[in-house]
Specification:
Elements: H1 2-37, H2 41-52, H3 55-84, H4 88-114, H5 125-135, H6 139-167, H7 171-199
Helix pairs in contact: 2-3, 3-4, 3-5, 3-6, 4-7, 6-7
């Protein structure tokens, strides 16, 4: 009888030990799993490009990564403007942004594949932060914030594309940057017009 009790105690202790060990492994690995799920696609792209390119090509890659980040953000914010705004001009601006930047992103994907450059595959952390800020606005505050973001975002984009149009090492990337500038400037003009109309309301 004593032997059976000792055997049972031993078996129970083994089960407790194994369970505790498995729980410890789960606790240790859980944070790393979460980090993988929430890894910024911009950082992933930059790391991959940094591993395979020299400095000259890495600069070109950085521009394409930045261009992809801009396009993803403009698409998402454009969709949000169409669903959350009650102002016809703001909705139209959002629709234009979504359509134009979707086309630009598709062209960019082809260019990136041809140049073997890795670009973000979804909205980056920076883009998500902008989206969250805008999503919390309502009514006229939403409309004004959206137009403000379109103005500042397109000024920044134009600056980056102008630099790439002259400084990019790859001719195809220079040409693509140059070809995008007229449309980006048009987007900026529309955003400024929309902002002025809101100020007069």
């Amino acid at each position: 009888m004593k032997k059976q009790i000792q055997f049972l105690k031993s078996t129970v202790l083994k089960h407790i030990f194994v369970s505790a060990l498995l729980l410890l492994v789960f606790i240790i690995t859980l944070p790393s799993c979460n980090n993988t799920n929430h890894e910024d696609t911009k950082e992933v792209a930059e790391e991959r490009n940094g591993e395979k390119f020299d400095k000259a090509k890495e600069n070109d890659a950085e521009f394409l990564v930045s261009a992809a980040e801009i396009n993803f953000e403009e698409i998402q914010l454009g969709q949000l403007a169409q669903s959350n705004s009650t102002n016809a001009e703001v909705k139209n601006l959002g629709e234009m942004m979504e359509a134009a930047h979707t086309k630009a992103l598709n062209d960019l994907k082809v260019l990136a594949i041809n140049k073997q450059i890795t670009i973000p595959t979804s909205l980056t952390d920076k883009g998500q932060e902008a989206y969250n800020k805008l999503m919390n606005k309502q009514g006229n505050d939403f409309d004004k914030k959206y137009c403000d973001m379109m103005i500042s975002g397109h000024k920044d984009a134009i600056s980056k594309f102008e630099k790439a149009s002259t400084d990019a090492n790859d001719l195809d990337i220079r040409n693509w940057a140059t070809s995008m500038l007229p449309e980006l400037r048009t987007h900026l003009e529309h955003s400024i017009t929309c902002q002025r109309q809101l100020e007069n309301m």
